[in-house]
Amino acid sequence: MKFNLPLLFLIVFATPVAADELVVYSARNEQLIKPLFDAYTAETGTEIKFITDKAGPLLARLKAEGAGTRADLLLTVDAGNLWKAAQDGVLTSVRSNTLDQNIPSHLRDPDGKWFGLSVRARTIVYSTERVKPGELSTYEALAEPQWKGRLCLRTSKKVYNQSLIATMIARHGADATRKVVEGWIANLATSVFSNDTKVMQAIAAGQCDVGIVNTYYFGRLLKKDPKLALALFWPNQDAGGVHVNVSGAGIVRHAKHADAAQKFLEWLSEEKAQRMFADGNLEYPANPNVEAHATVKTWGDFKQDATNLSAAGRLQVEAIKLMDQAGYK
Amino acid sequence: MSSTSAMATPSPGIGEWLDVNVGLWRLASFMVAAIVAAPLLVLASAWLVPSSELWAHLADTVLLGLIRNTLVLTISVGLGVTVIGTGLAWLTAMCEFPGRRVFDWALMLPLAVPAYVLAFVMIGLLDFSGPVQSWLRGVFGKDVWFPPIRSEGGVILVMVLAFYPYVYMLARAAFLSQGRSMLETGRLFGLSPARSFMRVTLPMARPAIAAGVALALMETLADFGAVSVFNYDTFTTAIYKAWFGFFNLNVAAQLATVLLLFVAVALYAERRLRGDARYHVSLKVARDVPYQLRGGKAVMAFSVSALVVGVAFVIPLIQLALWGLSVAAEEIDARYLRFLGNTLALGALAALVTTIAALLLSYTYRLRPDRITQGAVRTATLGYALPGSVLAVGVMISFVWLDARIASISLHMLDVTVGPLLTGTVVALILAYAVRFLAVAYGPVDSAFERIRPSVLQVARCLGAGNMAILRRISIPMLRTGLVSALLLVFVEVMKEMPATLLLRPFGWTTLATRIFELTSEGEWERAALPAVTLVLAGLIPVVLLVRRTAPR
Question: What whole-number distance in Å separates Cα of residue B488 and Cα of residue B493?
């Protein structure tokens, strides 16, 4: 009997090309995205395969795989990494009226290479026992001497702080921003923390009085311990607005299912998915016509910083250098 | 009767007396070394790109500080694990005191606790807002002083407690195989017990202790999790900062190769210092009559052992269990059986592959310890010192490259389109683990080899035994303890491994470690306690086996 090697090879190794399949590389974690994938599969029959990892390794993999990649969509939890992915040429431009209508222009790439899908607001948290909201005004004001020994911050290695400083540079320039950062460092009550929750616990325990955190960490902590004497303050309402970042996605340049990926992306920007996307982590929907979770709404309305988020990526390197120089660890 | 030839002439290699095809063994070893070298070369190739102005920024701002931190951390953890690991091994192997039988294995348990978990639990308990300080403030007023846990001392303490079991395990095996006779020999020459220990026992156990310390230090240098929890800047945090913050994977890879060079030089220096000394002793694993500790000494031995096990294992486990219980209702379900199954399967498979590779390398080196073979061995055991994600990317890039070659060959020669055969399959994952953990397997295997007298192999050869027969009937049985240690150590390490698993796993695959990542990536540390505690408990299986299989009979 003649041994048919090519056929055997085909049977064993060839990739079956399923008609309705999407492959997602996600830096947003499984328990937040899986429910959305499942809902989409139930609705449309499109199967979604995915892996999760940090954005850095996923991007390295996309670049290494190049045209051979199986990925259709890249999902991250900050705009900086989406900006970098677009810079590195692994994302493709999307023209979609649905996306342009549903996602405000400052939350998406001007070239349509990525779109914010949920908003993560980074704001001021304070002790209701030792601080009156009237004493608070802006992020920049936390650099003033009245806060000496009363401020707690998270490490500058976290991208949320890097984005905050990057947008500040976009607004005020590097010199003014450096003065603010130096003022913050002079006001620190203790060495910087490795996460937002620790910042809030330190404030609650009396180690410091104010801090800067993402709102969903606040929501999560308060849910566990509603008695904590902490509250959120929306800064910069007269100038600039509250710093926001996004969790978002872009379609991979070498996507094998680009049309299906675009349909999925559009579906993610519509009401039902927007609710699931934001509520799963107490974030804000990116689509302004979709209401936030009831818990989130109790924190009040605020004006967002309307600077386009590509600035967060573009100025991230400069922001980190500035923080290094200012001694922000 | 044990015999030693600590000043023997350099061995020409047992290949001289064996009628074997040394070339074939060497070829196989070189292939193993090449698989490990590929990702390292990928990283080294970063130097081909023109140097970045980022170096100037790092040099101006943070480089000096983080080199200082890295040195302080390495030296302090090195001293700490040597003293604690060797001291405790001496107590449980050579002495008798209340509780010794339990501590003998219990002191291994911290091996199952990932360092970043210990770091997180310690800070959670001992920081200003934690229960201990809150309670103290409640009792003694709000100005009560407490040593700051988020400090250099804190991070050193956590790493010593997390990594001393490597030294403990290997030193314990060495002490057991030496038996008491070595110490008695010293005493016959008029040395006090303490001096006899320092002059005879300790030097004899040096290869084992050095292997343990080397593992602990490579683990320290590569650690990202624990130092991040402490926000303590080291060389490794700078590598990640260059990559994730400055978006510069190239500079990250360059920094990583500098780190690797540092490790290579340190390992080389240790071997040079050891010189040509040989450490052959008989392979008797049996307890001689132990030193009976009484009174104050017994109390001390008990207290120190209990303190170490308590802080490094019992307290973190209790804290994890409490957190785990509080979230069990929303977190645990049938998926956990699959996570556990995936974790155990990967661990077992990778342990087998890696240990076989280590055996191959070590044996080939014994056959012909020339420079080329030595170079192959050194290369193959370097992967452990690299931060996990960096090595994972190196491995990923080399596999993607290989996949592309395979795909183009199959397209052109067979006209068949194939998807990636390695990337995203279990094969890639197992190879990645082998690359990373070969040093872990090599340490115990090699130090076991070190203690076998070449004369045994000579005699076997004279009696007509072939190469395979020698490996199967003499080497492997005599190496049993070392091989079992290697298997189980790699097993535990693979179970805890996160970065390579995340990047190279098949779609939809979840292990306990990746589950921890999913939860901690958004700061849900308490929910992560459930997979963490499952991981620790699953990790106990190999650890307990490890101790029982290497226990004196």
Answer: 9
Residue A252: its H or E element: strand A243-252
Report the DSSP pairing between strands A47-52 and B291-292. Answer: unpaired
Q: Say whether B414 and A64 touch across the interface (CB within 8 A).
A: no
Contacts of A27 in chain B (CB under 8 A): 521
Separation of alpha carbons A187 and A189, rounded Å: 6
- Both tokens assigned to A141: 């004001």
pLDDT computed for residue B19 by the predictor: 60
pLDDT 10s digits, B436-490: 999 899 988 887 887 677 777 778 878 877 777 877 888 778 888 788 889 988 9
* Contact: B247, A194; criterion CB under 8 Å: no
Are residues B379 and B40 in contact, defined by beta-carbon separation less than 8 angstroms? yes
What's the gap between Cα B27 and its chain centre? Answer: 27
d(CA B240, CA A30): 23
Say what percent of chain A tops pLDDT 90: 93
Average pLDDT over residues A146-174: 96
Looking at chain B, the whole-number percentage of residues with pLDDT higher than 70 is 91
Between CA A113 and CA A252 the distance in angstroms is: 9
ipTM of the complex: 0.89
Q: Would you say the C-alpha torsion B499, B500, B501, B503 has a positive or negative sign?
A: positive
From chain A, the residues in CB contact with B149 under 8 A are none
pTM for the full predicted model: 0.90
Contact status, residue B434 vs residue B76, Cβ threshold 8 Å: no
Asked if residue A295 lies in contact with residue A94, where contact means CB atoms within 8 angstroms, the answer is no
Taking alpha carbons only, the member of A85, A135, A138 closest to residue A111 is A85
Shortest Cα–Cα distance, B352 to chain A (Å) = 25
* Helix (H/G/I), strand (E/B), else coil: B326: helix
DSSP state of B190: T
Residues 6+ positions from A66 with CB-CB distance below 8 Å: A254
**Helices B335-367 and B22-44 sit at what angle, rounded to 10 degrees?**
120
A218: Cβ contacts below 8 Å, ≥ 6 apart: A125, A200, A230, A232, A299
Sorted by where each begins, the domain ranges of chain B are 55-298
- Closest by Cβ to B244, choosing from A56, A217, A321: A56
Q: Strand B291-292 and strand B95-96: pairing?
A: parallel
Residue-level pLDDT at B20: 63
Of B164, B199, B371, residue with least CA distance to B271: B371
Q: What is the dihedral of CA A274, A279, A280, A286, to 10 degrees?
A: 40
Cβ distance A57 to B403 less than 8 Å, yes or no, reads no
Across A10-14, A81-85, B274-278, B449-453, least confident range = A10-14
| B128, B230, B417: residue with CB nearest A202 | B128
**What is the spatial distance between Cα A272 and Cα A249, in angstroms, rounded to a whole number?**
17
| Rounded distance between C-alpha atoms, residue A190 and residue B188, angstroms | 58
Per-residue pLDDT of B88-146, as tens digits, reads 999 998 889 999 989 998 999 998 898 988 999 999 999 999 999 999 999 998 888 89
Q: Looking at residue B180, what is its pLDDT?
A: 66
Which residues does residue A253 pair with via DSSP β-bridges, in sequence order?
none
What's residue A27's pLDDT? 96
The stretch A319-324 carries a mean pLDDT of 96
Nearest to B389 among A57, A77, A325 (CB): A57
**CATH topology classification for B55-298:** MetI-like fold (1.10.3720)
Where b means 16+ CB within 10 Å and e means fewer, B21-55 reads ebeebbeebbebbebbbbbbebbbebeeeeebebe
Domains and CATH numbers, chain A: 15-119+246-289 (3.40.190.10), 120-243+313-325 (3.40.190.10)
Pull the structure tokens for residue B209.
């202790």
Mutation to test the A interface, candidates B231, B322, B393, B502, most A Cβ within 10 Å: B231
